[in-house]
Structures are given as C-alpha cells and as structure tokens.
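Example 3.2
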Amino acid sequence: MDIQAKKDIIIERFKQVDDENLINAIKNMLDYALKKEKESFEVPEAHQKLVTERFDKVRENPERLLDWDDAKKTLKA
C-alpha cells in the first residue's frame, strides 16, 4: 500500500471521530511533524555560504579537483 492510500484511510477514519481530545491530540502531532519536517530541510546560511565559496573556487580553478579514483587511493593510504 502506498503512502497516499494510507493517508486516505486515515482521513476517512478521522472523519468518524467525535472525541475532541483525540482530535486535539492528532492536530498537535501533525503540527509537530510538520515543524520537524520543515526544520530538516533548512540549511543554515553559514553552510550555504561555505558551499557557495567552494563552488566558486572550483569554477575559478577546475584543475584543483581530483579524479575520484585518485582520491580514493589517497584515502586508503
């Protein structure tokens, strides 16, 4: 069963609930989950700046990059 089918089943079951405490608890869980999901995708500005600086260095001097096979050899040494 895919994720959308699971969501549809939960939504249909939720429509049958009349317990206000349960509805509030589910709402709180969803609010928390959405907040956590959003946080996990936010990249701090300092990290963005660091990556941008590294890309700029590569664009200025692409010869500074190592071939992956050569880089692996230096890691094993």
